[in-house]
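Input set for joint prediction.
Command: fold jointly, output tokens.
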Amino acid sequence: MSMEPVIGERRVHFVVSEELYPLDVIQGASYLFIDRCYVWLDRPADKQVQVVLRSKGQAGAEELEALAGEFANELLNQALRKNIGDTNAKIREFVMARAFFAADMPSTVDRLLAELDAEEMAVDPLEISVPWDHKAGGRPPAGSTDG
Amino acid sequence: MAEASLRFHRSLYPPACVHEAVAAFSALGTIRVEENPQDTQVFLTDFPDRLADRIEGEVGNHVLFAAILASRGGA
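tokens >
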């Protein structure tokens, strides 16, 4: 079995080995050709997928051969994408997790610091936050220009 | 009236995807489905002649699209 295209009337077919191109790669390439031609997949043998491309309009042998060539190139492209996707899967998951969990949520340390700040602000042993006229005696502090 | 038959290998096209396409195209003609151990066969009859050239391919592409969607966790 080989990827050598066999050209017929308005159709071209060839066999792809699943050992070279996994099924999801073949499906990915097929998906991109659905709008240009009719795509059929068949299984002539174990680990083999036959791809049949049938043109939607009239097409000569050269066009059909070019179509098969483009499909073969797309198989390579999809295989590379899958390869890169598999290689970067962990990094992608990590970046996604960071993006989701860090978006609106302050870090734990930031939250604890904010709590400590709030507690410290609530304690006022020198009564700095109390206006002088509310304090006992109601006298302005020395040097004050108020009143 | 046009007629055709199609065969979808089970390892490439889940039967549910074939049935989905059958439901979508049943308004255009008569469709009979036969489930075999290896494949699902679809018989298209009573389709308008002007669709004769396209009906097989359109049903095939529809099933393929559904199969790709299903394999990637879609509906």
